[in-house]
Description:
By secondary structure, the chain is mainly α.
Amino acid sequence: MTTTPASEPSAITPRLRVAPSPTGDPHVGTAYMALFNLAFVRKHGGRFVLRVEDTDRARFREDSEAQLFDTLDWLGLNWDEGPDVGGPYAPYRQSERLDTYAPYIERLIESGHAYYCWCSSERLRELRAEQERSKSPVTGYDRLCHGMTKEQRAELPGFSETPVVRMLIPDDVPLEFDDLIRGRLKAPRPDDQVIRKADGFPTYHMAVVVDDHEMGITHVVRGEEWISSTPKHLLLYRWLGLPEPKFAHMPLLRNANKSKISKRKNPEARLTWFREQGYLPEALVNFLALLGYPPIVETDENGERTEREVFSFREFSEGFEWSKINPVGPIFDLTKLDWLNGVYIRELPVNELAARLLPHLIDEGAVPPNPTMAELARLESVTALIQPRLTHLTKAGALVAPFYVPDDAVPVDEDARAQLKDDAPQVVDAAIEALEGVSTAPGDVFGEGRGWTHENIEAALRSALVEGKGLKPKFAFGPVRTAISGKKVSPPLFESMQILGRDATLTRLKTFRASL
Ligand code: GLU
């Protein structure tokens, strides 16, 4: 017989959100926040919301939202609700929710927690300058408008027709709160914060509280720069009689010199940069997770504790705990990312790596725009050659391009030609003669096993040039490499010749010989 448990408290499904502002290229910090939010959501079977906070109309950039969707999607940081996919709490763009905020702001004004302020921006500027000049211990807004009607205020200087609405911060404003990462926190006393601007739009502080409540957000996870704003938000929750969510403030990402990563100074602050540079999304996700999160600890077969820095999003999410986050500003170390990128490149199956390289190669003109099946098959063979040492997807172009040029017109780089010695013509002649003795078919039985394989190509060239002519391998194969690829550096030479085939190889050598 089965019994139904009497009254098990139903666990509330966690609902978390990332709330970027579309003010230009998405910041890498947005992906960082999304990643940690999502790790918790996926571990607990919750919902992840993408909300676009576009109330700052002066800094709004039209194309920024599309870039945001694109880059987060590229990283696999997918949201369950958002402006593009919709959801039960739509709309998910704050500019489309002005009607939602209005009654909340009205309630605050009616209850005396908020007031109109008609001070012009010039007056506020002068007030600030004066406070700085006199080193006044009192800073912030002086509440000139508090308790006044519009008519009363209009009699005084520094009046502006369209008012803002401000919070009336009480003397006993609670400044302490619990943070899931940092424990008990204390923030400085806030100023009479503007909650509705003169253009009628709410400020971030108002909109964030209303939306987090309306959208049922249970955990507010955001950057540490918002710690000082939290007391304002807590007041708004209290005044409006709304339950508070839990808070977690993630550490800020920093440069090696401890400065904050900024889009103005650091190209790597732009999320689009990583894609342009040829990083794999899974490497970037792993890298971002390690910024502030420890490696995975395992016990090896000898019972020794080992740490593993390479892990997937799934592993990260499965073991996720807020308490493991180190709140001390993690250093954004690109050398580490480069290393991780190499690790992930080598883990990819060759055909998958070739598919990821293709758009970059077409962009660079290394591979023709609509490659044929044969050209794609060749790309897979070349990819296998370059995979062991490739660090960025964008570094493949120079190595791959020589495989897609006409055999009788291989462009030869200046530096490759400059390093040739006087004996280059004789070396190339000897190479041609040696290779003519290697037959066409790979593994050819008729040629006594002297088919067109890289082993046979290498054996033929070594015996003709190194043993036959007594050349050092570097001088023997340098001119051959130049003839084949036109470059000083190329993928492994004998394997390259195998991929090109016998005819193409000989044409390349002969054309080059004629140019000497
Ligand atoms: N719109 C804010 C930002 O861009 C979001 C802060 C928050 O998550 O509360 O940083």
